[in-house]
Write a structure and sequence with these properties.
This protein is α+β, with helices and mostly antiparallel strands. The protein is built from 3 helices and 3 strands. Strands 1-3-2 form a 3-stranded antiparallel beta sheet.
Length: 64
């Protein structure tokens, strides 16, 4: 099973408020899995979120 993060962990990672993470999920900018009343975000979804927001696209393994 891949690494799973809470919304609070994602908020801390990006330096944003928890409400912002919930907004990203609600607007489908960040994929999440709802477990009970809480969301969990997979590592692969975090990577996709970051990749979609890169200002300069590069091939995998290529450094800028």
């Amino acid at each position: 099973m891949s690494q799973m993060y809470t919304c609070a962990q994602i908020a801390e990672r990006y330096g944003v408020k928890l409400f912002t993470v919930w907004t990203w999920i609600r607007k489908k900018k960040l994929n999440a899995i709802k477990i009970g009343k809480e969301y969990r975000i997979r590592q692969i979804d975090v990577e996709a979120f970051e990749q979609a927001r890169m200002t300069t696209k590069c091939d995998e393994g290529q450094l800028l």
